[in-house]
Input
Amino acid sequence: MNRKFEGGLYDCPNVSSYIFKDALDINRVSIHGLYETRNIGKYCRLSEDVAEATGKSVASLNFNTAGGRMRFSTDASSIAIRFIEDEVILYQNMSVSASAGIDVYVRRNQKCEVYRTTLKPQLHPERDCVHIVNLGEGEKEITLYLPIYNPLNKLEIGILPGYTINSATPYSNIDPIIYYGSSITQGGCVSRPGLTYEAKICRESNIDYTCLGFSGSAKGEDSMINYLANLDMSAFVSDYDHNANDKELLNTHEKLYKAVRKKHPDIPYVIVGKPDVGIDYYNRRSIIFTTYDNARKNGDNNVYYIDSYMLFGGRDREDCTVDGCHPNDLGVSRMADAIGSVLLKALKVI
Output
């Protein structure tokens, strides 16, 4: 008897041959972009006390695993992935593969990660959500990019008897890049999790990152500023132009810069404008540019400003979003080029 699994028809004995183990219990699986997941047993992006102090929306979005990754190597020719989401949240402007799916990338012989497949989410909770991924022979490194807009309750990795899971090659030996911003920073609205601009920059540079994008909720609150400033980081990207209104932006934008700079006097600090240039562009540009201008006048030569018009480029700008606001895959690719070129040059990667 065949049983239907998300992603195709698989024979039950074949699936049952895999030995599954909770990914949090596999020490050789490294976890990135999440907050102390193994210690607290939850998939979230920052400490719950900070999230709750910042507001109900951030407290909820904290459990969206945007930017979360799992990495390991294996000699197995295939693996099975089982993941559990209590509910799949649907969005009008975003594919369910991106909001609640998992991307699988494969790296061989120390070359670049290559996209393998997307594990589609389970739309009917009563059905098992198991995917078998064929990988080919030999040792290879796997990166799982976790859902952008959905809570993840549990993820299990299965391999066939006789094969092993080992550690992946570590990222570069520097602290992660921290990205703070809006739904665009969180990943809206790429078509799958591995296509966010942060993920693209990571694959180009091999530098770890943490995505603290909170849809509609990045307003530079005091609790968030204090938390961000005290994180370990190799660089900071301020990308929250979109959510804060003019008054909030005026009261917090330079304050965030000063807080981070006080704790991290030497790191690159990158200020990014919102990519969808609208009627309020010039007021908001003036506010965030003032942060940059004041920093430069005070002798900070490691602060950078990326103007909104640079993010999508001059050609076919109107084709770079899904709804006039959130970038599609084309828009995000151009953002990755614009932000990455500044960021990685400042980090002396390119």
